Amino acid sequence: MSQTETAEKPTRHSLIEDAQGIAYGSFMAAVGVQLLTHLGFVTGQTAGLAILISYATGWGFGPVFFAVNLPFYWLGYKRLGLAFMLKSLIAVTLLSVLVGILPKGLEFGHVHPLVGAILVGFLTGSALLALFRHGASLGGIGIVALYLQDRTGFRAGWTQMIFDAALFACALMLRDWQTVAWSFLGALVLNLVIAINHRRDRYIV
């Protein structure tokens, strides 16, 4: 094998690189959640479920998000392995802690909903990209979707779409339709960021 081929061959991330990537992803996701809740927005997946529970009960997002994700770690371990499960647990724990700490050092004033929706999508999208590229996630429905696809053949994308549709329908009972519409735009931007930039064949693991 030539030196050029050796230099171009992908290698695994080091422990320090994984730690930095997970820390970055968790921190940026926490900023995204703080902006999202500042605007009264909702989102999809388990983060969206935790936010709706938080809005309905007044409980803090961090503890709710941590608790909501607990049932998914076993599936994550069975479907994607121990390393993925542990990294995801670390990421979810960091996010749950950071959303309680960040307001002490970061506050938002006036943010137009259009700007907020796009910024939330970009912030959260970049956070998830960092976590995905370092073998972690923020837990949740995606794991269940993959599990159901393996067991039943029902496409994972459809499972996630049905879950998110149900979340946004429930959101209409807690938020006005304009806020839900802006929230949908933010979720769309987030998904576009992931769809365009998340390519396993282009990056080291």
Automatic annotation (TrEMBL):
This protein is called what? Putative 5xTM membrane YitT family protein
| UniProt organism field | Paracoccus lutimaris
What is its membrane topology? Multi-pass membrane protein
Which chain regions cross the lipid bilayer?
21-41, 47-68, 80-102, 114-132, 153-174, 180-197
The record's listing under InterPro entries reads: UPF0750_membrane, YitT
Q: Name one GO cellular component term.
A: plasma membrane
Keywords in alphabetical order: Cell membrane, Membrane, Transmembrane, Transmembrane helix
The reply to whether Transmembrane helix figures as a keyword in the UniProt entry is yes
UniProt cross-references to Pfam families, sorted A to Z: YitT_membrane
Could you tell me where this protein is found in the cell? Cell membrane
